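We emphasize that the prediction below concerns an isolated chain of 93 residues; any contacts that depend on oligomerization or on bound cofactors are therefore not represented. The input was used exactly as deposited, without trimming of termini.
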Amino acid sequence: MDRARPRTARSALSSAGSRLGQRLLAWVEARAAERRAAFVRLDCATDNPSLRRFYEQQGFRHVRDVTVTAFGGGRQLASSLYERELGLGPWGA
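Result of the prediction step, given as a token string:
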């Protein structure tokens, strides 16, 4: 396996200031390393500038924006894809 992608990682506003986001990313990175992944890849809604900025501040690189169809052929969703090579983030190797 050369990459790992968490299904969904969301935090409540009540967790602001607790570094929950950084701790979740560190946990994801550890699980990816156990699986010998070379990258961690994340996605988020394109229209979520706060989350996009957070990912970039954590060392993730914007790869591209895509449009995907929701399960069951429902609505179209704009998604931004990010990746970070393992061992290069602000929280350490």
